[in-house]
Specification:
This protein has helices at residues 10-18, 21-46, 50-57, 60-88, 90-126, 132-145, 148-164, 168-193, 195-220, 234-265, 271-307, 310-346, 354-367, 370-386, 391-415, 419-453. Helix 2 (21-46) runs antiparallel to helix 11 (271-307), helix 3 (50-57) packs parallel to helix 6 and helix 5 (90-126) packs antiparallel against helix 6. The protein has one domain (12-453). The longest helix has 37 residues, at 90-126. Helices cover 86% and strands 0% of the residues. With 454 residues, the protein is an all-alpha fold. The protein contains 16 helices and no strands.
Length: 454
């Protein structure tokens, strides 16, 4: 008897490539290929040098500003609200998206101006290991990069619209184009304009990041017309209620990254860059598998919770949580085993010496402990957001972040750069443990509330 595996239909292939978690994995893989190409160019041109320390440190404040001011609202509230409105009445969903764009750009622009003016007072605390000239360069580059969050406000709002409609491929494709912009800056602009050319490449990448998502939204939703709308609608008010806990968590998450940067800036030259390179390698399995699975299950969980189908909610979450745990644990083990040869091939050569390879490989190996933990954290956060609860994951996140910073600070004098991934893993372990205990309690509460309202 011959067993034949049925060939997938064209429709099934389309769903797999464009609308499943594998769409995130595919596009994230492409993005990381571009990112590794970027890192290789940087490594060969600059090695583990102070100029690259300054460049990398300059991204921390702009990234934090965007994450706290706007991405918190998009992550915590946009998908559940937009998905429900889109099912009921598309025009109300479009109105909500316009309002999010308008309010987001206004607040993001104001925050960027305030931070730009305050940088001379903040810089000595943010990068205490830099000398006066290095601090001056850091301030200049950070001010230029603060234009990025305003542009990312547009791109990520469009991106959340795409996730709500399970357009995962087009959402995930834009980071690859962002990294392409960084490669353009490193290859063709930096040789003529130095570090300013690298910054210009970043801005080019942001524009391409937005362009991909804009084209897809306008193609799919031709009725959506982006225009200023500062209406304080019930949906915006609900967003304002759901957002503050996530904002606090995002603020502390980026304060943790600032703390890690500050710790690294006081270690031997190149430590900031080594820490960030290690974080990039650690982020490969987290993004390709952990975050991909978490984002792909978000719309289904939101629909399950909205319809009161909590049995399916639990089934969907448990299945995806197990997938995330198994896949990312195996990926973390694989990354630890191949870290040294991979770093040698991808970054070795030029000014990136053998000692640099050895240091980075050992830091990556310690970072691998956090891969399944960070992936599970993302999965649990999406489950809580689908249940319209942002307080519990944010409180757990705050506790985990505090433990991460304290642990890294205490271990730094003894362990040096290894203290950062060790502290990071410790905090994540505590956070995931708390969320594992509290999620079943919240589901049970929501079931009772839905039965009463029905």
């Amino acid at each position: 008897m011959i067993f034949r595996i049925p060939r997938p239909t064209l429709g099934q292939l389309k769903i797999l490539i464009f609308h499943s978690s594998w769409a995130f994995t595919l596009t994230a893989g492409l993005s990381y290929v571009m990112g590794l190409l970027r890192d290789r160019i940087f490594a060969h041109a600059f090695g583990l040098s102070r100029i690259l320390d300054i460049y990398n440190a300059s991204f921390v404040i702009p990234d934090m500003a965007f994450a706290v001011v706007l991405d918190a609202a998009l992550a915590a509230a946009f998908i559940p609200i937009f998905a429900k409105l889109y099912d009921l009445e598309k025009e109300r969903a479009y109105a909500y998206a316009r309002q999010m764009l308008s309010w987001g750009i206004m607040f993001m622009g104001a925050v960027a101006v305030i931070l730009g003016l305050a940088l001379p007072w903040l810089a000595p605390h943010l990068v205490p290991g830099f000398n006066a000239e290095e601090t001056r360069q850091y301030i200049l580059l950070t001010r230029i990069l603060l234009t990025g969050p305003v542009l990312f406000t547009l791109s990520n709002t469009y991106g959340r619209m795409l996730i709500s409609q399970k357009e995962f491929f087009w959402y995930g494709l834009s980071p690859a184009f962002y990294n392409l912009g960084l490669v353009i800056g490193a290859l063709w602009l930096a040789p003529y304009f130095g570090i300013t050319g690298l910054i210009a490449g970043d801005l080019i990448g942001i524009l391409m990041h937005f362009g991909i998502r804009y084209i897809r939204v306008r193609t799919k939703d031709k009725q959506f017309k982006p225009k200023p709308d500062l209406t304080l609608s019930p949906e915006i008010k609900e967003t304002m209620v759901l957002t503050p806990p996530r904002m606090a968590q995002q603020a502390l998450w980026h304060l943790m990254l600032l703390g890690f940067t500050a710790i690294a800036s006081g270690l031997p030259e190149g430590s900031v860059t080594a820490y960030l390179y290690a974080r990039n390698f650690q982020g490969v399995p987290v993004s390709l598998l952990g975050i991909a699975i978490a984002l792909a299950m978000a719309p289904a969980l939101a629909h399950d919770a909205g319809k009161g189908n909590f049995a399916k909610f639990k089934q969907d979450f448990k299945r995806n949580r197990m997938r995330s745990l198994i896949y990312t644990t195996l990926a973390a083990i694989g990354l630890a085993l191949v870290a040294k040869p991979a770093i040698s091939i991808l970054l070795g050569g030029g000014k990136f010496t053998g000692s640099h390879v050895d240091l980075l490989a050992s830091v990556v190996a310690v970072y691998c402990i956090s891969v399944p933990l960070e992936s599970l954290m993302n999965a649990y956060q999406q489950a809580f957001y689908a249940l319209k609860n942002t307080w519990i994951p944010s409180a757990a996140g705050v506790g985990g972040i505090g433990i991460s910073i304290i642990t890294a600070k205490l271990l730094a004098p003894l362990w040096g750069l290894y203290a950062i991934p060790a502290g990071f893993s410790t905090g994540l372990g505590v956070e995931v443990s708390v969320l594992t205990i509290l999620l079943p309690i919240l589901i049970q509460k929501r079931e009772k509330e839905f039965q009463v309202s029905a």
